Structures are given as structure tokens and as C-alpha cells.
Amino acid sequence: MTVALMWEARAVEGRGGELLDWAGAQELAVAPLRRETFAAPEDRVLVITWWDAAYDADLPELPEPDGELVRRAVHRWRFESVAVA
Questions:
Q1: Mean pLDDT within 13-35
Q2: Could you tell me the CA-to-CA distances from 23 to 9, 11, 15, 50, 70 in Å, in that order?
Q3: How far is it, in rounded angstroms, from Cα 64 to Cα 58?
Q4: pLDDT for 52-81, tens place per residue?
Q5: What domains are there in the chain, each with its CATH number?
Q6: Is the dihedral of CA 6, 7, 9, 14 positive or negative?
Q7: Residue 38's pLDDT is what?
Q8: DSSP H stretches of helix in 1-85
Q9: Cα separation, 51 vs 62, whole angstroms
Q10: How many Cα atoms are found within 13 Å in the side-chain-facing hemisphere of 82?
Q11: How far apart are CA 37 and CA 13, in angstroms?
């Protein structure tokens, strides 16, 4: 089974590049099958990691950044793959 973990944060205004660098520098205890990092308007950063694991497996996740770097708590979602096109 493939599970995708999504991590999304919104930087303090004007610090999106700093948050992007911070997210890219975070190492996980175990390497995922795949990892992608995205940037969006309003200083948003999204990291998706893919794992060959059960939906409820204990998987490493990116931590919360320093509170001075983000506007709010990180949003996290977990998805199970159901179809591949």
C-alpha cells in the first residue's frame, strides 16, 4: 500500500523563501519512496512524502518550524493511494 503524507505551512509574510529552505533541509529518520517540495503564493510551502506502508503506520514527519517563521501551526494530512493513472 502507498501512503502519502502532506505537510503544509504558511510563512510569516516575506519569509516564504526561508521556510522553503528550512523544509528542504529537514532530514527524516528514514527515507521515503519519494519526496517533493512545492511553493505557492502567500508564502506557502508544501512537502509530500510517499511511503510503502500501511495507512496507520508510524512514519517520520517533518517537525513544526520555529514559531517566528510561520503564521500558524502546520497542517498535516495522510492519504492512501486508491488508483494510479
A1: 97
A2: 9, 11, 12, 16, 12
A3: 17
A4: 999 999 999 999 998 899 999 999 999 999
A5: 2-80 (3.30.70.100)
A6: negative
A7: 98
A8: 16-25
A9: 14
A10: 2
A11: 19
